[in-house]
Amino acid sequence: MVIGEYDYGSDLPRPLPETFDEWTHAHDDRPAENLLDKPVTTDGPPRSEAVTAPVVRHLRTRSLREVKILPTRYLWADYLPFAEVALLVGKPGIGKSTLAVNVAAKLTVGKLDGDCKGEPRHVLYSITEDSESTFKARFIAAGGDVDYLHLIDIVHGAGKDGSPLLINVDLDAVRAEIEMWDPALLVLDALNSSLVGQLNDNSSVRPQLERLKSLAQATSTTVLGVGHFKKSTFGIDPVDAIGGAGAYGQVVRQALACAADEDAGTVTLSLIKSNVRSIADTPSLAFRTEEVRVDSDDGSTARVGGLIWLGETSTSVRELLQRAPQGGDDDRNEAVRWLLAHLADHDGEVPATDVFANGARAGFSRDTLKRAKSKANVRSGKPKFSGGWVWSQAPTEREGSTEAGEGSSADDSRSLRSLGAPFGNAGDTA
């Protein structure tokens, strides 16, 4: 039997050579081809090249009767709905990343109060501001299961260094990982690192957030992006205080915000936007961060920030933003708080180049950081002749830190579940 090969320039098939030498001679003047790339059919002769039909855009019309009404399911009851894009915003150094890690850790062990309670779930996590070592220590301090947490980034070629995933480029790859792991949560910390273009331009930011939203809804995965408030927030509505384009507050379905309550010495977490529930009926929560020690793989001890939930608070982020700043709360004071928190999260010592790079992402210039360094009593030096400059926090005695830690649980006998803490068992404060 003779197998024919159709050529688009001819109406009739021509016989293929029957020997390898004959085939080679017949194709001496043609570029090399990979025969595995040729289409295989069972009802006719193979063609010399694949025919790909163009994708045609067309209008779709459906009856509303076809749409199903489904109840809103919550990854974290009242605060994070399933299959939506949510934001967590606040001033730099206030504990947003620690909070996000805490929620993720509780989810991986089935202790997050929501529709996944009692069922450990996988989490995909993109980190761009913390080191992987610091992140792991913080995650362990929060009681998470490391087998259920998967870091994601982008590598190029045979290189080992990763870079942040980009929504405009890498979303198909992210979708493939979601299909593999079936995570309940994808965290982008910081969200801005995964966006391209002018971040103050709606025409640039909105299409990227809408693509992220489509991915969340198609895969039933909650996406939590960590972002920042603007530098000046006094008297501004919390949604308007979100840094960057207005699309951040327009596209996302749920937005959470943190603000410092200087009178109470705590941080308040509030729901500031929701398309699925009443903001007025969702209580604000109070927490504080304190140093936690975690065993290092080299036998020493790592010190990272840990989160202590204090229950519901009558103070909201909206109210805190209306308060006049205390003590001339300018950029330098904001930078001081960020710098001290950044050092605390990295064992009290950070290379100066990393301080400037991470500080720039948080919105602080080199000059502002240098002034904050002086005000915060941060030292700089070269620990090795061949090394670069390192910033470190001068050691100080923390008066009353032990008593404060003990009093946080003794002053309130109510269970943390009744206060809205994001986990299921009372007394779990990791």
The succession of helices and strands, N to C, reads: EEHEEEHEHEEEHEHEHEEEEHHEHHEEH
Q: Which quaternary structure do these chains form?
A: single chain
Number of helices: 11
Give me the side-by-side strand order of the main sheet: 7-6-10-11-5-12-13-14-15
Give me the secondary-structure category. Answer: alpha/beta
Name the helicity range. Answer: 25-40%
Indicate the low-confidence ranges by residue numbers. 1-20, 22-48, 397-420, 425-430
General shape: globular
Instruction: Report strand %.
Output: 15-25%
What does this structure look like?
With 430 residues, the protein is α/β, with parallel strands linked by helices. Helix content is 27%, strand content 21%. The protein is built from 11 helices and 18 strands. The strands form 5 sheets. It has a 9-stranded mixed sheet with strand order 7-6-10-11-5-12-13-14-15. It has a 3-stranded antiparallel sheet with strand order 16-18-17. Strand 17 (378-381) and strand 18 form a beta hairpin. It starts with a strand and ends in a 20-residue tail after the last helix. 36% of the residues are buried.
Key structural traits:
disordered N terminus, single chain, three-stranded antiparallel beta sheet, 430 residues, 21% strand, nine-stranded mixed beta sheet, alpha/beta
Structural topology:
Elements: E1 4-5, E2 14-15, H1 20-26, E3 74-76, E4 80-81, E5 85-90, H2 96-108, E6 123-127, H3 132-141, E7 149-151, E8 154-155, E9 162-163, H4 167-181, E10 185-189, H5 202-219, E11 222-226, H6 247-251, E12 254-261, E13 266-274, E14 284-295, E15 301-313, H7 317-322, H8 331-344, E16 349-351, H9 352-361, H10 366-375, E17 378-381, E18 390-393, H11 401-410
Parallel strand pairs: 5-11, 5-12, 6-7, 6-10, 10-11
Antiparallel strand pairs: 1-2, 3-4, 8-9, 12-13, 13-14, 14-15, 16-18, 17-18
Helix pairs in contact: 2-3, 4-5, 8-10
